[in-house]
Design brief:
By secondary structure, the chain is mainly β. Helices cover 9% and strands 34% of the residues. It has five helices and 28 strands. Strand 27 and strand 28 form a beta hairpin.
Length: 376
């Protein structure tokens, strides 16, 4: 078990006031209708093309967490990612577009999560009435950069913007020399764009988990204990749930898992450790993370804030408010995660008739055999 100090925990708590936007993160930053975008890099090595982008916690996690905000009508233009890209809408209304020319679309609203496949063009526009807020998660520490649509690359050159082959934005208005064609990323040819896999609206809908799609169920071995019984709704991959009836709607490898955790007022999740790094992003305030065996370190994570918990640290989640809270849990890896609850929790759960089977799922205690391994 790894202990964490209050100073170390506070350094991993990124408040909304800590987020620092960059208006020149990508090659489309001067395009009319896109020039008011604000891009954020919050956790991970980063995805931006700009040297001006501030990353709050650049430590490798196996994934990257970022965010975007923009006034109504402003567009994030068509581009391709090589690793999984997931949009988590926390505020406002956004219309997401995909396809060779963005001919398909769907609308995302608060609480909706959209996973866009790799190697297809995607973009989004603020179709709501306020600035809105979208968190993003991209798979991998090195996401490989971005390929923008050929029309965007051509238009950007008219504003003196180019993208080098090592994914660095070149801005001639700031004194950068005009690069040669050999120094820049080559736009995709028309036939290459046409050969990209097509996703129908019906297929893409299967990659959306809206608020009405969520399947909340009791998730942990402590479900029968006093003030416990928090619920999880899986979104992507094998997360930390211990409920064998849980199935994530989106199951292809992303490099991370994603789940909603719902905690009622006065309720908490008993202390457990994980072998993987975890990022927590609440939708509402009232989430307290209590750490270490003696509970001497705690962090109150507010709405839309992020908190990164290192692997091996004992942590419990508590709702300190008067309303139900939901928080997004993002954990590294595509495999099934195995939360390890404290011994006293396991014993108390057993007394209430619950135990874990060999696959790590909750079962009736009287059905679980006790046996020893045969020595070879």
């Amino acid at each position: 078990m790894t202990r964490i100090s209050q100073t170390e925990a506070d350094a991993r708590h990124i408040k909304r006031s800590d987020y620092q936007s960059c208006a020149v993160a990508f090659i489309d930053c001067k395009k009319p209708g896109s020039h008011l975008k604000q891009n954020y890099s919050i956790i991970g090595p980063g995805v931006t093309s700009s040297k001006e982008q501030v990353i709050n916690l650049p430590e490798a996690h196996g994934f990257n967490i970022g965010a975007a905000a923009m006034p109504p009508g402003i567009t994030n233009n068509l581009h391709i990612h090589f690793t999984a890209e997931v949009f988590m809408v926390y505020d406002g209304e956004y219309t997401f577009r995909w396809g060779p020319n963005g001919e398909n679309e769907l609308v995302g609203r608060p609480g909706d999560i959209i996973s866009v496949p790799t190697w297809i063009y995607r973009g989004f526009v603020n179709s709501g009435t306020g600035d809105g807020w979208i968190f993003t998660t991209l798979g991998g520490d090195n996401t490989g950069g971005v390929i923008f649509h050929p029309d965007i690359i051509q238009e950007a050159a008219g504003f003196g913007l180019y993208l080098s082959k090592d994914n660095v934005l070149i801005d001639t208005s700031k004194g950068d020399p005009v690069p040669s064609a050999e120094q820049c990323i080559t736009p995709m040819a028309t036939e290459e764009v046409a050969s990209l896999r097509a996703y129908s609206p019906e297929e893409m809908r299967q990659r959306v988990v809206s608020t009405t799609d969520r399947d909340f169920r009791p998730a942990f071995i402590d479900m029968g204990l006093t003030d416990c019984g928090a619920e999880i709704a899986p979104v992507i991959g094998h997360g930390i749930t211990q409920n064998r009836d849980h199935t994530a709607r989106i199951s292809n490898p992303h490099g991370f898992s994603m789940e909603w955790l719902r905690v009622q007022p006065g309720q908490w999740v008993s202390p457990f450790t994980l072998d993987e790094k975890m990022v927590v992003i609440p939708r509402e305030s009232g989430v307290r993370v209590v750490m270490n065996d003696d509970g001497n370190v705690s962090v109150d994570v507010g709405a839309w804030e992020t908190f990164s918990i290192p692997e091996g640290v004992l942590r419990g989640f508590q709702n300190t408010g008067a309303k139900t809270v939901e928080l997004l849990l993002i954990v590294a890896g595509d495999h099934q995660k195995r939360p390890k609850f404290r011994g006293d929790v396991i014993e108390a759960a057993f007394a209430k008739g619950h135990a874990l089977d060999a696959q790590g799922y909750v079962a009736a205690a009287h059905l679980i055999p006790s046996y020893g391994m045969v020595a070879e």
